[in-house]
């Protein structure tokens, strides 16, 4: 599929901003997937190409956090494997089912997440005792990984919220480990979608260059200012994603509300 030079340049600019936002709070797919579809790329190809570019941006953020010693790879190896398997299954399912039914559930989950961050006590920058153990961590991360492979946008926000609320991580630590887990799920989905022949390589790789730069800037910003910017961005991106999903007239939750209004 051929795209005009100015269209590719615009997509690269969007990828930079999305990479920056992704490194801090997740939700970059809210920008890149609609941008790819606005360029005339079919939905499954848009999701596949987004996985290619976002994998590079996420990897860039992981490197930045790892260099600062912010990622406990030993503790999060099994959850990362769970995210990989779950995402591969999600991407496999995506190619066989219509993902539209998820659009009714996701806004409700995002709103609950926003309520949690608005009403919960200010999250500590330090890790604390988690409410759940290692088995629950693997199970929850695997489920979020499935969602990432199947649908995608908001995955980083879901992971960060779970790590803070259920497993006792401070906001910066949760953000760092979210990048590691999200990289695993991105790679699994990407491999599955490459096998399915859905990735547009040229535009995806060009966007990846911008995403890498954005990921570096975002990771360093997250470590410098911590929860002061992470928490507001999580809330903002979650609300924007909710509005984006509900703006679709075909969204089942919107249709239900309108029918009973």
From TrEMBL:
<keyword id="KW-1133">Transmembrane helix</keyword>
<feature type="transmembrane region" description="Helical">
    <location>
        <begin position="187"/>
        <end position="209"/>
    </location>
</feature>
<keyword id="KW-0813">Transport</keyword>
<keyword id="KW-0472">Membrane</keyword>
<keyword id="KW-0812">Transmembrane</keyword>
<feature type="transmembrane region" description="Helical">
    <location>
        <begin position="76"/>
        <end position="94"/>
    </location>
</feature>
<protein>
    <recommendedName>
        <fullName>Probable membrane transporter protein</fullName>
    </recommendedName>
</protein>
<keyword id="KW-1003">Cell membrane</keyword>
<feature type="transmembrane region" description="Helical">
    <location>
        <begin position="156"/>
        <end position="175"/>
    </location>
</feature>
<feature type="transmembrane region" description="Helical">
    <location>
        <begin position="12"/>
        <end position="33"/>
    </location>
</feature>
<dbReference type="InterPro" id="IPR052017">
    <property type="entry name" value="TSUP"/>
</dbReference>
<dbReference type="Pfam" id="PF01925">
    <property type="entry name" value="TauE"/>
</dbReference>
<feature type="transmembrane region" description="Helical">
    <location>
        <begin position="100"/>
        <end position="120"/>
    </location>
</feature>
<comment type="similarity">
    <text>Belongs to the 4-toluene sulfonate uptake permease (TSUP) (TC 2.A.102) family.</text>
</comment>
<dbReference type="GO" id="GO:0005886">
    <property type="term" value="C:plasma membrane"/>
</dbReference>
<feature type="transmembrane region" description="Helical">
    <location>
        <begin position="132"/>
        <end position="150"/>
    </location>
</feature>
<dbReference type="InterPro" id="IPR002781">
    <property type="entry name" value="TM_pro_TauE-like"/>
</dbReference>
């Amino acid at each position: 599929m051929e795209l005009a030079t100015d269209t590719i340049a615009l997509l690269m600019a969007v990828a930079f901003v999305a990479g920056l936002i992704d490194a801090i709070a997740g939700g970059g797919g809210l920008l890149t997937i609609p941008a790819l579809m606005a360029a005339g790329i079919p939905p499954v190809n848009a999701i596949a190409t987004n996985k290619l570019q976002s994998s590079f941006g996420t990897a860039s953020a992981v490197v930045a956090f790892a260099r600062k010693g912010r990622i406990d790879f030993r503790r999060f190896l099994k959850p990362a494997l769970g995210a990989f398997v779950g995402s591969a299954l999600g991407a496999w399912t995506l190619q066989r089912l219509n993902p539209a039914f998820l659009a009714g559930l996701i806004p409700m989950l995002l709103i609950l997440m926003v309520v949690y961050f608005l009403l919960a006590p200010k999250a500590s920058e330090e890790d604390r005792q988690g409410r759940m153990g290692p088995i629950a961590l693997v199970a929850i991360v695997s489920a979020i990984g499935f969602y990432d492979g199947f649908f995608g946008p908001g995955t980083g926000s879901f992971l960060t919220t779970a790590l803070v609320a259920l497993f006792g991580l401070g906001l910066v630590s949760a953000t760092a480990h979210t990048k590691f887990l999200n990289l695993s799920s991105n790679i699994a989905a990407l491999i599955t979608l490459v096998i399915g022949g859905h990735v547009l390589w040229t535009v995806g790789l060009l966007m990846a260059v911008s995403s890498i730069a954005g990921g570096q800037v975002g990771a360093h910003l997250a470590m410098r200012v911590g929860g002061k910017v992470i928490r507001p961005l999580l809330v903002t991106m979650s609300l924007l994603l909710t509005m984006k999903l509900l703006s679709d007239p075909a969204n089942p939750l919107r249709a239900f509300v309108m029918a009973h209004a």
